[in-house]
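Protein 1 of 2
SEQ + STRUCT:
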Amino acid sequence: MAKDILGKALMDYQSGNYSEDIKTYSSLEEEDIIPVPYLFRDFKKMPPLEQKALKLCKGSILDIGCGAGSHSLYLQKKGFSVTALDQSHGAIETCKLRGIEHTVLKSIKDFKLQKYDTLLMLMNGIGIVGKLKNIDHFLSHLKSLLNPNGQILLDSSDIIYMYDEDEDGGYWIPDDQNYYGEVTFEMEYKGGKSEPLDWLYLDYNTLQRAANANNLTCELVSKGKHFDYLAKLTRIK
């Protein structure tokens, strides 16, 4: 994004200048809020799906889209070798200030430095794919970053519930949408607004089909309370 809205909010909170939260506007709902303090939560305040994912982490870990680094910080304190990666300059600076030892300022799509035992993508990290048509290329790239027995841990949500349901149990999906989980959103903070960003919410069955097409197994680890889920992807041997 041209404006590092998220990074500015994180740096403000880290430096004690927190005074407001991030507003979001999406193609599905008019306005929502991202509470900035929530991005700095500790393990006890994380949702069960995130706690489960962190407990499943193994070996060397790449925390993709690390944000404020809360997941990386927890794993580092547990003794793991973890690298926090984000394309937000403010996010990476925040991670450094919080004491995270290994950070990378880069988009995952451009990252090719080394391989890991665990690729971690939480808070709907798969959303950075943007459009469903990009999923094959994205999963192929992730697979190239995995060690032979490595794993990809990600959570997402099936947002079909946000569409109107008819009497037969079907849903009204606009004709101009290729896939109902494709959303465009913007973030606003202290008068600054981001460029529109394509974001993908992926239902589990679609993820599973895409994983299998890219020679990856896909396991449904657990379901959340609101159409969300945690999945584990591994190489098909």
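Protein 2 of 2
SEQ + STRUCT:
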Amino acid sequence: MKKIFLSIALFSLVVSCKDDYLDIKQEGQTEASSFFKTQEDAMQATSAIYSFLRSWENSAFPYQFVFGVPADDVVKGSNPGDSAFINVYDNFTYTVSDEGVRGYWIGQWQAVNRTNQVITHVPAIQMDTTLKNRLIAESRMLRAYFYFNLVRIYGGVPIYDKVEAVYEKPRNSVEEVYNFIISDLIAAAEVLPQTYPSSDLGRVTKGAALGLLSKVYLYKKDWQKAYETSNQVIAMGYNLDPDFNHLFRPAGEFGSESVFEVNCQCSSQYGGSQYAQVQGVRNQFGWGFFTPSNALENAFEAGDIRKELTILRNGETTPEGDLIAMGDPLSVTTFNQKVYVPKALNNSACDYGSIQNIRILRFAEILLINAEAANELGNTSTATTNLNKVRTRATLPGTTATTQATLRTAIWHERRVELALEGDRFVDLVRTGQAATVLAPYGFKAGKNEVFPIPLDAMDQSHGAFTQNPGY
């Protein structure tokens, strides 16, 4: 099933990574001492970080196991017998030995190591100084993103700010990890440009660093900084795409709403991405996994255009003219329309949907971050204004919420339907303290399932440096 992968044997950072090997070249390992010599080496090493963003671990099955299926908005998909092992993520019965828990952990550490290779070795290369500083800033921004994933899924993790000879540090606290992320993002934002030429689309920008920073402050409940930082992003000239369908089609990639987006164009060097394939319409475009739940369907208000532009149904004809086949009667009948690539645009050189970019951070979310922070600061006017901008695009009337409490609930709801199937629902429920109530019917246990376990082999190979998360 899996076609695009990063071998565990290449990198298990906590297990065996040394500073004399570098996971850059797809054809194998390269000794760092003989690699980091030229400007081209620096560029190639940084490109290896970006290639991970589209990888199996970061965007396909392991990612969906921890960010997707545990939420109430996503079900396993496909048919009941296909990859039934995924069900443990829906009913919270995964264990320390589960391969998905382990796969996402290993993948994120592979990515952290790639960033640290650049941050550690590129400063010594004789090359264009401006480019050098930018590549280091890009790497720090991306390191912050990977650490943000780790801390939200596993809680406190070891902090590695450079290549190490031995990787057996104890876990840092959640607060220490967040502070490390913030320092990386602030440093990156000071250097990164606001835009790139078309040949470099997909590289992280100043707006991406500040946008992610505002989201980090939101998770820390530092409302003032979340408000101020999201205001900086709002002032940069981003805009909502007026057409919600266009936003997620290839023609809408890197548009006015794009703050942080992964370039997944099919190429001879990196292949494509399986992000869209694993979720595509079963037996027509893809495998049919990670599909919208009935709970999500019922969450949309009457008249919300996002409902039918988020949920793709058997038997419908898309706005682009593709008839969605009725398919296997034992399989699910609805799919994630946000990953749909029209048949006429699909690049057959790679798997289905490989041209579908991954939207990690959109301007709509920046508006909702700003609205939530403003509301918590008592600024209900600004909160209402930015919430309503998102609602207006969805052809909905302005919110009827008028108090801080009702507006808070309205903003949380708007995040659910605006960002549906984009990987935010589960961690949002945890962040806002709703998980224990909303997910209890699925088996969620408060005090345990807010985070996932540290994988068993990582625990064993830490030689006692790690403590396990409660309840596992």
